[in-house]
């Protein structure tokens, strides 16, 4: 959710990309837009939106609604304008006044993120309905979704689509193709308990069909197995920490196994370490934030809170360099553990996010939320933007990843 996909998972779909729902956490800031590109007034962030525009915009709008804000009309209108006539969304359409053609690369991740954002903001049921219909039309026969229509299913894409279905009140278990639901795909990606990384989830099987646990996919898969989207609060504590083995794992068992795997991964330091090539003991801020959300949703609130505290002490600079998706991701992590995003290690995540684009307003309808601002401390802002996904569709689409969410990580 997040900037949740890291560059390695992108490699798994055949595209190298810089930056993580997600982009790779801790990576260099996203590139500034080219001189020929004029950024729309309603778009959050000033970095080139070619690969993450819809993702970062969607995370921003969801975070604002979670805080009790009513997003600015131009921001919502920009997102709506990215939709194609068939209901799908592309990462960025520089000329939304023109009809989508074969050159416009749509993807499941952007579409599912937009569904969650537009459902949260309200007033766009037609756009949401068409987007969900398109997602259902491109479901694979294994029950899951790939980043690009027709592409091999992966845990991240399947999980973000589950979140979109759940946001609209649809039952993911009843969303099937060839008799299989998205939960069947997640079960197929669950690493057997006795293997290295047991309980975790793979992004996709490797070329030999073997599964390797991937922290990014595991965090996404926890939320997917629980039938949750970007926004979640603390769930019920698991009854057992033991990894459950079985030929037919239930969604709850998939989530418990995966959450135990994540808890173990962050138990020592409180954070994940980047799996990007060349990274040496480099913290993975984005996927750590996703892990906080996943652990909280799975009822592992103590470990989630410890990792959130680590983020408070260490992630401010990362968010400043990365932009709106990173700020939104941290806000959603704060919401998951019941923390106050108005004071994040001395920085207001709320004001920092709002400074990235058109200012929202407080929701007169009384959207359920804690007061979004209590801190008067300084915020960090940045002209940079973070991309959760960069993927197949750049070369053939856009990446996978929350995280992204912007949400990927490479299979070990």
Question: How are the SSEs placed, and which strands pair?
Answer:
Elements: E1 3-4, H1 7-12, H2 53-67, E2 69-70, H3 73-80, E3 89-90, E4 106-107, H4 108-121, H5 125-137, H6 155-167, H7 182-188, H8 215-225, H9 251-266, E5 272-273, E6 283-284, H10 285-297, H11 301-314, H12 316-322, H13 324-337, H14 349-354, E7 361-362, H15 392-395, E8 398-399, E9 404-405
Antiparallel strand pairs: 1-9, 2-7, 3-4, 5-6
Write up this protein:
The protein has 412 residues and is mainly alpha-helical. It has a single domain (3-405), classed as Glycosyltransferase. 39% of the residues lie in helices and 4% in strands. It is built from 15 helices and nine strands. The protein has helices at residues 7-12, 53-67, 73-80, 108-121, 125-137, 155-167, 182-188, 215-225, 251-266, 285-297, 301-314, 316-322, 324-337, 349-354, 392-395, and strands at residues 3-4, 69-70, 89-90, 106-107, 272-273, 283-284, 361-362, 398-399, 404-405. It has a two-stranded antiparallel ribbon. A two-stranded antiparallel sheet has the order 2-7. The longest helix has 16 residues, at 251-266. It is globular and about 55 Å long. Mean pLDDT is 84; it is low at 1-28 and 365-412. This is Squalene cyclase C-terminal domain-containing protein. Residues 1-24 form the signal peptide. InterPro entries: TAT_signal (IPR006311), Terpenoid_cyclase/PrenylTrfase (IPR008930).
């Amino acid at each position: 959710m997040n900037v949740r996909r890291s560059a390695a998972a992108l490699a798994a779909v055949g595209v190298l990309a810089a930056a993580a729902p997600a982009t790779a956490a801790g990576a260099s800031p996203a590139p500034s837009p080219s001189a020929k590109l004029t950024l729309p007034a309603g778009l959050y962030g000033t970095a080139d939106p070619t690969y993450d525009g819809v993702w970062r915009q969607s995370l921003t709008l969801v975070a604002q609604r979670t805080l009790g804000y009513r997003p600015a009309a131009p921001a919502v209108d920009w997102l709506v304008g990215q939709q194609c006539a068939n209901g799908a969304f592309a990462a960025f359409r520089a000329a939304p006044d023109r009809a989508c053609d074969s050159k416009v690369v749509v993807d499941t991740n952007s579409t599912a993120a937009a569904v969650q954002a537009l459902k949260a903001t309200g007033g766009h049921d037609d756009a949401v309905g068409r987007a969900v219909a398109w997602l259902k039309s491109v479901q694979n026969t294994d029950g899951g979704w790939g980043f690009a229509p027709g592409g091999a299913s992966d845990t991240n894409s399947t999980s973000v689509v589950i979140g979109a279905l759940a946001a609209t009140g649809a039952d993911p278990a009843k969303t099937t193709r060839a008799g299989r639901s998205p939960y069947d795909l997640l079960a197929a990606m669950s690493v057997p308990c006795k293997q290295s990384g047991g309980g975790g989830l793979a992004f996709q099987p490797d070329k030999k069909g073997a599964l390797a646990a991937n922290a990014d996919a595991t965090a996404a898969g926890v939320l997917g197995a629980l039938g949750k989207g970007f926004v979640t609060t603390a769930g019920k504590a698991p009854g057992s920490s033991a990894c459950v083995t079985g030929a037919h794992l239930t969604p709850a068992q998939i989530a418990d196994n995966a959450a135990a795997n994540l808890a173990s991964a962050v138990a020592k330091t409180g954070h994940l370490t980047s799996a990007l090539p060349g990274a040496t003991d480099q913290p993975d801020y984005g996927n750590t934030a996703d892990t906080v959300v996943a652990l909280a949703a799975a009822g592992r609130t103590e470990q989630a809170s410890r990792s959130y505290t680590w983020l408070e002490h260490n992630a401010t600079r990362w968010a400043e360099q990365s932009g709106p998706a990173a700020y939104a991701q941290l806000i959603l992590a704060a919401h998951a553990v019941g923390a106050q995003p108005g004071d994040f290690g001395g920085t207001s995540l709320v004001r920092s996010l709002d400074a990235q684009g058109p200012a929202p307003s407080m929701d007169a309808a009384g959207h359920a939320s804690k007061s979004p601002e209590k801190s008067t401390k300084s915020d960090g802002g940045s002209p940079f933007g973070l991309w959760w996904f960069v993927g197949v569709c750049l070369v053939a689409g856009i990446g996978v990843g929350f995280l992204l969410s912007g949400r990927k990580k490479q299979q070990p």
